[in-house]
Amino acid sequence: TPIANPRWMVPNWSFGIREEAVRRQVDEARSGGADLVVSAVPRTASTSTAKLASRVPGIDVILTAHSHDALPFPIKVGEDAADRFGLARKIPLATRSEVRERGIADYSYALIPVLADAIEPDPDMAALVHKIREPHEAMLGAELARTESLLYRR
């Protein structure tokens, strides 16, 4: 994210998966007797978390958030890790795991698409959103620019 968050704007932030730190934590958990190791990795692509799972042995599950990769099943990486147990906001995930003998014996996994037009808005929340947005409506509705061709969003 160096382009979206240049160092000069966020001098005390750091980005990236710290593989060595993850490896130390996994080793510490296993040597402490952990039967299951779950790693939570925010905002990464499935290729990044699969790479982490392949390079750090001992992780049973990688929970991720804010992914755009809506996969109908988790990705199995080697013998240890089930990757992609998570999506944020538009496609929450329901999963249930059976843990037995230092690992996951079985699991169920289901994506639950959220269709905004199929959910009845909560009146109190809608009123709060309106109250917060109302003073800014003119600015939020202002046309800033116009394109002469079709733009695509990645």
TrEMBL record:
The gene is soxB. The lineage of its organism: Bacteria, environmental samples. The keyword Hydrolase applies. One of its GO terms (molecular function) is hydrolase activity. Keywords: Hydrolase. The keyword Hydrolase applies. This is Sulfate thioesterase/sulfate thiohydrolase.
